[in-house]
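INFO worker-7 received task bundle
INFO bundle size: 2
INFO processing item 0
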Amino acid sequence: MNRVILIKYGELSTKKGNRNYFIKTLTNTVKEKLKNYDVNVYKDRANMTICFNDKDLEDIKSIINKIFGIHTYSVAYVCESEEESIKNLVLEIAREKKFKTFKVETKRSDKEFPIHSQDFNRVLGGVILKNIDNISVDVHNPDLLLKVEIRENGTYIYHDVYNGAGGYPVGTQPKGLLMLSGGIDSPVAGYLAMKRGIELDAVYFEAMPHTSLDAREKVINLCRKLSAYTDKINLHVINFTPIQESIYKNVREDYCITIMRRMMYRIMERLCGVYKAYAIINGESVGQVASQTLTSMNVINSVTNLPVIRPVACLDKLEIMDIARKIDTYDISILPFEDCCTVFVPKHPVINPKMDTAIYEENKFDYNSMIDDAINNMNTIVVTDKIDEFSDLL
């Protein structure tokens, strides 16, 4: 039996005037992700079809599970849109399955097909009941649900429907810069941002020797997990040590985290200009730590005019952890290697900082020249989901 993968777009279908652009972007992504396999990809306004070799099916399924823009997909059997061919194929498929109850659902996109959908459901159901013993029809909760889609170019028959990654294809929105730490939250934020079509670069602030090479490797591995949902992610590594040491030398202790975040946001804004990014993205969750109260966010946010997108802002920690496990970043995130946001945490960071105080404290040292130096000495690592040679950077 000839089989194809049948993809349903879902949310892409609501784009009206921009639908062709979204579908074209998704098609290009699928072709790029499957370029090492013998496949043919066809699209129309409602579906995408992938012709494949049977030996590659499981590999292909694991890849398309991580392509945003796919609502659902199925492995479908194909025949001519002709009554006897459809009846024969439906019976052949049913004979391969073990079930006690079943239902047939027909969708007749080809209006030239002479039998209406509801009538054809009964015809196909009758064929199955006549040829397979000890079964019955159950229209509410069947063991086997056979879906039949009759189109001009052929009829597609399938039973299992798999959930895709959903959302929009990466690249349908401009670039954003992700503040990627080694924690649980920021990789989840990056995943959710890509799900809305945002292309990502990532920025990692390290403070050697206070942070370790293991901490950098941890972030690279997190980046690799995220890159499975796109083609690659550029990871920009910022040496934050001089800035952080100056903060803890000159600034009152309870304001150190506030000033540190304000410096990071200034650097992020500069990098957005360099890399033509339209937003800063991070893993802040309202109220989770002192720098993530609304008061703190307001004071920290004031140093940039760019949108700051916080995809996990209103999720609790357990919800974030569930997503982290789903995308396979959780076990990496909990490795015991501290980043610059945790290594110098004061005992009692200010929860409700004052804007005037923050400005006064940060003006105690020449941060502008340090920001220039940090950006000028930045390293960039191109990360994919393949095993890369990063040994010279670790």
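INFO item 0 finished
INFO processing item 1
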Amino acid sequence: MGLQEYKCPRCGGAIAFDSGAQKLKCPFCDTEFDMDFIKKYDEEIKNEGTDEFKWDTEAGSEWENGETAGMKSYTCRDCGGQIVADANTAVTKCPYCDKPVVISEQVSGMLKPDYVIPFKLDKEAAKEKFKKHFSGKKLLPRSFKDGNHIDEIKGIYVPFWLFDADVNANIRYEATKEDKWEDSDYEYERTDHFSVIRTGKIAFDKVPVDGSSKMDDKLMESLEPFSFKEAVPFSTGYLAGYYADKYDVDAATSAERANYRVKHSTEEEFLKTVTGYDDVDVVNSAIRLYNSEASYALYPVWLLNITWNQQKFTFAMNGQTGKFVGDLPMDKSLFWGYMFRTAGIVAAAAFAIQAAFHFFL
């Protein structure tokens, strides 16, 4: 029969019984524990379980006869992007890389979306948002404000997989409280460690994950939120005058990103209930899904391709809410000038304080 080994809840080291203190003691961090506490703690660890993410990824539907008659597929030779648009749309360049596209007459290899959020904002709104995006940016090169060239502004429906699920969660946090005091001889510090457990349920509705490898996940997530309340059943009529990206990442693969978002959001929401501590960290979380399902939708996005100083910049705007995102160039000379001025002000303030200190001495 093997010996029972316990791990220190504080540092993870093996703890042993200290006959002098009549307690379990960790030889690595010198923390002492009552036997009843360690037994209860060890039992909780054994029953924590692990994550269980199982999604029903059946989403979208097959096209009915004649539904794709007014649609064409465009394939970019350069980046491989596959764009779908109505037959009357004059397409000359890829919305991702600005290179010429090849037109094929038939739409294939794509499921019919369940929902679509129609565009609410037009191209002029995207231009105005672009101007506001760089107004007030002190480190932006002046030549960018005056000399940037908008190559093209295109409205594109981005494919999104939407994940719904109810979640059972069991999360353990390690929390600490710090206390400091002093007397006439010494200064003291004490850190108390706590194991905090939260168990409960939470529901997720329409967690979006973009299904296009051409779209950066973080860029699309930065455009959120989209309001699904304005989504309608998909109809090809909504594509008139716009593009629609063909998904090339399926629902099963996209579920990995959904898992991360659900797990992270659950831990963050439960963390809000752990108060009164100086520091809190997640030690273990067991997230289990049930009533999970996925659906397929198209969300509206304006893409702006900008050329400046022989460089390409891509900006995006939420076609429903107007939220605008994109990285701007920085004038390094203005940056270093700002840093030197700031350092000079800090140095001058420090000198003034030192001078005043000597004066009062």
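INFO item 1 finished
INFO post-check item 1: The helical segments are 35-46, 123-134, 142-147, 217-222, 251-271, 332-360.
INFO post-check item 1: The CA atoms of residues 71 and 335 lie 49 Å apart.
INFO worker-7 idle
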